[in-house]
Every structure is written in structure tokens, then in C-alpha cells.
Amino acid sequence: MKLRKLSAATALLATGALVLSGCTPGGGNDDADGAETGNGETSGNTDAFSAEGQQFTTEPEDTGKADTSDLETMDDEISVSMGEIEFVGYNGQTPESYSVYNSTVVNRIFEGFGYWGTDNVWYANEDFGSYEVVSEDPFTVEYTIGEDVTWSDGTPVTVADYVLDWAYQNASLTNSDDEPLFNGISQTYGERVLEGPQGDPEGKTFTIEYTEPFADWEIMVNYALPAHVVAEQSDMELDELVTAVREADTETLEPVAEFWNEGWLTDPGTLPDEELIPVNGAYKLDNWQAGESLTISANEEYWGNAPGTERIVFRFVNDGQHVQALENGDLNVARPQATVDTRGQLERLEGQIVLHEGEAATWEHLDFNFIEGSAFADSLELREAFAMCVPRQQIVSNLVEPVNPEATVLNARESLTFEENYEDIVSESYDGSYDEVDIEGAAEILEAEDAVGTEVRIGYAGPNPRRTDTVAEIKASCDEAGFEIVDSGSEDFFGPGGAQETGDYEVALFAWAGSGQVVSGQNIYSTGRAQNYGEYSNETVDDLFNQLATTEDEAEQQEIIIGIEQELWGDLFGIPLYVHPQLSGSDISISNVRDTASQDQIVWNAEQWQRAE
């Protein structure tokens, strides 16, 4: 089963969403190459990325995962690098850990009811379980977890796990300070489903009932964290935990939330005790060398098809060293930053590697900080002056076009340049005010606001050559207008305690990773949402996203998105820059490597990788 890719960019935060997701915080790709059929469903026949010389143990039939049921696990090791950003932890559902860099690992150890194919088509994971709409009014969905699906410690995956999954996304469960108990990345589930999953906590079948139809219902429920571990670490029985969630007994739930929020956190290089981190995917966390690598190894208790290779090693290698590491054999798969130099270096390895190339659903942007005390928080005039001096076309021409000659400046957030509704949305929501650099106009505003010399710290996750170059381009232009641009890139900008968390920046430079969600942007732009890092607030935007979430009519969705874009441009929430090109390389001897438009990038099917014999 598969769904047509809908629209919108989501956070891969980090991958994200953004997750942050990565580039991010998040990274990801998106290209709807599949042809639209008459019923609105994407055929999903074409990978979004081209790659000559790929090898397959089983030829893929569509953009989903190939049938690898005949694979036997080889006692081997395949090394991959997504960049040098450190792994954060097992619980990838907190704002601090929800990045592409972290999710590309975490999503290898957990499975759920579906996954994104290579072109951002959603595929149901029928080996894990099934789901179906059982009532239209009220809108109700029934889920069934496969009988054989278990955690690696032998505990069955049950309804209890999904009750906890709902709880962490329920902002109505609050502490004595009226703050949400759980430090989760999203509140949408708890808002749309008021009573949580219904069913025997020890059973395999549950239903969820929506307050009203929801556009993204099919991807609302996916994988869950182990409730039995959380219960044990909270000194309670599993049924007590479930009862406390269902009765909204926040006092009883306080130790549950405390462990969920912090109990899986460890210092870099140190994994939690094995009994605390069971998995239900093909791999488990094995060995973590801080600043160097994280190894995942085959889960002996895995209920699905055997993974192709015993060990996958994620190496934290600087992008600039990826190609040399591929050439030396230190890496078998790598996703360096897509630059003209990288392309040339990868092309020179023809015959040794497979070059995977395509256009990502990851889009670069500058976001203002609206937190009290920030220079831009209460001044639309200063935000306008900054937007007037940012050389967007120059950034695209110098940094992106050499990799993707078709690249253009991005003028929307909820639709990307290659999507068919993009031009219609932009034509009705953006008037071209910031197409051309206007140094004189920006300088006049700074003079009028008595703001000449305003320091603008531009933060990003670094080191990142393209972002460093982007800030340099902005500095050369905006300093001339009267700003004082400061490059505040750092390794921990998006990490726990980093500048993004503390608000020590004026502008954040990062990317949101695309997904097939219609309303993913709600978590980024709506008041108080988990990924609204700069604390932006606009009641009209809040209302429009609520409307968007409850309609499945595409024409209505587009009109609402136009309204959202108009508001975001009017307020200058931030400044979109461009859609990311993406390049990856894989050793020609590794079978089943396919790059993807989804947030998981080239590692999305790592459990199928295997060295050719």
C-alpha cells in the first residue's frame, strides 16, 4: 500500500524535521518522479535519484523497499557517513535529538506501520502490522500489530507502547507549572485524538478516534518507544502506567515523563545499559566512540527479514573528507555536501563508486529569533532591512547552481520549486519585494530606526562549508547596509544547551527536510509548537493551519497554504533561500544502495545493504 506524496516541507531536525533534521537541523530529499494516476495516487515506479552502475540482490519493483526475504546476514561491516555531527541518543523524539543526523541512526533500530519510499511516497509496512479506517463519523482508525513483532528483549510490542506514544505527544498532560510533562517534538496527536489508543494494553489491536477528519491521518501513528522499560524505570507496573495515561493522572506520570525525557540521555560515547534500550528493528545499538563512530549490529531477535550485513558503522566524518574516504575504502557509503567540487571529485571515482544524484526536499532558510530581547523580535522594519540586503540570488548562483544548473531562489515554505503547485502559490502570496538586493533601502531603515551597527549573529550547525560561505555572502552585503554580521556557526548550535536552545542568536541558518505531510508546517509556525524555536506567534497562521489539518480537498488545501504564505511573508517569519541538491556516493561493490527523497536519505534501506560476493 502506498500514498501519493501530498505537499509541504517538514522538519527533519533537525528530518527533519526537521525533524530538525539536518541539515538542520535536518536533511532529507524529495522529488515526486512517480507519475500521477487518475485516482490521485502516485505510481511510485521511479526512484527520485539517478545512479548508474547500481547492483541489486533483488531488483526493486517500485520506489519502496525491494523484497529481500532471501537475504542471509553476512558477517561483514559496511561504513557510512552522513557527516560529522555526533549521535545524540536512543530517544529521537525530543527537540534536542530530533535531527536528521540522529534520525538516520534511530530509524534503523525502530520499525512501525510505514516508511517513506525513495520519492516520498508513503508505504505501509505490512510486515509490522496493518491499519484501516473503520468509521468515517467519528473518524476512527484501527491498528493491528503483527503477532511476531517483539522487542529485542523478547517483550511483545503491544498496545501499551502506543498508549505511551500518544502520551508524550499530549500537551494536556502537564506538571505543577502547567507545562507539558513530556519534552516531545509534537503535540498534534494529542490534539487530534483526545482519548488515546483504545484496546487491551497487552493486546495487539487498538483504535484511535479523531475529533474530526485529519489530512495526515495515515502517518500519525508509526513507531513507539518501549513502555515496559519506562514503567520499570518509574517503579510501576505496565498496567499502572497505562491507567495513569488514560486517567490523565499527571502526578503518577511525573516519574514516567522524567525518565522518558532524561533517562535515555548519556554522555557522548556512552550508551545506556542494554536492558534500557531494546529495539524492534533489524539493528540494535552496539558501540559508540565519541566523535568517531556509532556501530549498530544485527538484532538477533528480529522478527522480520534478516538484515543483509551484520554491522553498519556510522562514522562522524567531515563532509570535506568523504570523497577521499570513499576512495581509500574507509567509507563504503557517504553523503557529502553537494558542491561543485564534490561532484567533480565523485565523478573522478567512476568505476570505483556509484554516484547518486537528485533534488532534495530539503530547503535552506534564514529564520529570525522572536524571543524577547532579540534585535528582530519586535521590529518588522529591521527584519525588512535584513531581508533587503540578503543576496539570495547571488547565494544560489555561487553556491547551488554549479551543482544544479536548474536551481532557483525559493519563494515559499509550504511548497518547493519542483512541485506542481509552487508557481500558483508564489504568484498569489509573494510580490517579489526581496528578489533584488537593496543596500540603500536597508541602510535608510537602519538610520531611521537608529539601528546602525546592529549585531546579527547567524547561527548554524557547523562546520558546514556551504553555510560558512552563505554567511560570508550575507556579511559582505549586509555589513555594507549597516548591520554587523557575525558568523556563529558551531558544532553544538542545535545540540542540548546550544545557542538554538538558549536563544543566543538573531538569525538561524538551517534546513527543514521535506516529508509528505500536508500540515507539517504547523509544528514550525504555530504558536507554542515544539519546533517553533524562535517563538513566532500569529493567530491567523494558527487558525489557517487548523483549517488545513481538517480538509482533504486539494483545492482548499492550496488556498489555505496561500493564506499561510501571505502571512509568513507579511510578518517576515524568515527568508527562504533554495532547495538543496543532493549527491551521495557508494562503493560499487555494495548492493541495494538507493538514495532517496525521504528524510532518511541514503541510509533509508541500510538493512538491505550487502557486499557483493
TrEMBL record:
<feature type="compositionally biased region" description="Polar residues">
    <location>
        <begin position="39"/>
        <end position="58"/>
    </location>
</feature>
<dbReference type="Pfam" id="PF00496">
    <property type="entry name" value="SBP_bac_5"/>
</dbReference>
<dbReference type="InterPro" id="IPR000914">
    <property type="entry name" value="SBP_5_dom"/>
</dbReference>
<feature type="region of interest" description="Disordered">
    <location>
        <begin position="28"/>
        <end position="67"/>
    </location>
</feature>
<dbReference type="GO" id="GO:1904680">
    <property type="term" value="F:peptide transmembrane transporter activity"/>
</dbReference>
<keyword id="KW-0732">Signal</keyword>
<feature type="signal peptide">
    <location>
        <begin position="1"/>
        <end position="21"/>
    </location>
</feature>
<feature type="domain" description="Solute-binding protein family 5">
    <location>
        <begin position="133"/>
        <end position="515"/>
    </location>
</feature>
<dbReference type="InterPro" id="IPR039424">
    <property type="entry name" value="SBP_5"/>
</dbReference>
<dbReference type="GO" id="GO:0015833">
    <property type="term" value="P:peptide transport"/>
</dbReference>
<protein>
    <submittedName>
        <fullName>Peptide/nickel transport system substrate-binding protein</fullName>
    </submittedName>
</protein>
